[in-house]
Amino acid sequence: MNDEVMARFLSRWHVMIDARDLPALPGLLADDVVFRSPFAFTPYRGRPAVAGLLQTVIQVFRDFRYHRQFVAGDSVALEFSAFVGDLSLKGIDLIRLDEEGRIVDFEVMIRPANALQALGEEMGRRLAAQGIKP
């Protein structure tokens, strides 16, 4: 993957997240994308499932913002902070792209444990309401 593809992806990603314009999200995902959740053992697979998860979690987070990014080849680590209710959290999005600049692998790590638990509970409620198994 060349630097231009990564730069184009990051620009689109940050604009989309900052604007909370998530209808653009499916276009950034590969058909066979895999999402590794910080509170589910089994990864979520496929564009519809991953798009649904990410579109839901951005609604749960309050004051979400990225602070730093680290790029290595086809992968990027994005450090973020947000609130879930009154709990503040920090996290890392680990994203790997294909040659066309679409996400093929997305893994999230979050701390502290109490904020992760609150996020998991709220996501579980919202996903269940959408008929998605948390």
- Sheet with the most strands? 6 strands, mixed
Strand line-up across the major sheet: 2-1-6-5-4-3
Distance between the termini: 33 Å
Q: Measured on Cα atoms, how large is the radius of gyration?
A: 14 Å
* Proportion of helical residues: 25-40%
Textual characterization of the structure:
With 134 residues, the protein is α+β, with helices and mostly antiparallel strands. It has three helices and six strands. The protein has helices at 3-19, 47-60, 113-129; strands at residues 29-36, 44-45, 62-72, 75-84, 87-97, 103-111. Strands 2-1-6-5-4-3 form a six-stranded mixed β-sheet, with helices on one face. Strand 5 and strand 6 form a beta hairpin. Helix 2 packs across helix 3 (113-129). The longest helix is centred in the first third of the chain and has 17 residues, at 3-19. The chain starts with a helix and ends in a 5-residue tail after the last helix. The model has no long low-confidence stretch (mean pLDDT 93).
Which descriptors apply to this entry?
36% helix, six-stranded mixed sheet, globular
Helix and strand topology:
Elements: H1 3-19, E1 29-36, E2 44-45, H2 47-60, E3 62-72, E4 75-84, E5 87-97, E6 103-111, H3 113-129
Parallel strand pairs: 1-6
Antiparallel strand pairs: 1-2, 3-4, 4-5, 5-6
Helix pairs in contact: 2-3
The gist of it:
With 134 residues, this protein is an alpha+beta fold. The protein has helices spanning 3-19, 47-60, 113-129, and strands at residues 29-36, 44-45, 62-72, 75-84, 87-97, 103-111. The protein contains three helices and six strands, in the order H-E-E-H-E-E-E-E-H.
